[in-house]
User: What shape does this take?
Amino acid sequence: MEKLNRVDVTAAALEVIKMLESKFGDLMFYQAGGCCEGTQPQCFEKGGFYLRTGDVCIGTVNGHEFWLDKDLFEYWKYSHFTLDVVDGHGPGGFSLETPYGKTFKVIYRLFTEEELENLEPLKRFDY
Assistant: This one.
């Protein structure tokens, strides 16, 4: 049986990602649970954000890694993420899509028990 991914992307978000790829090249996504940006997913040029030991890569979006803060992952580890985009500016402005009047967001749903038994493996950041 094919392993299930933990993150997907909507067509609208994929369109913005492709535009960002054409301007910036390789990308990375990071979602924290802290202050400034709240829990809004952030898009950076690959390597433009420094990961912490224990941060978790839950999968890729169009070939770009999607990382979660290690503490946020513990809270959301039973959830599937769908990366979406909306018009407007989020709570901050560090993410690459912000100057284009867009904001990435995540739609969550809980995995079923069957899905939890068949998920793709995780990758943790370790110096």
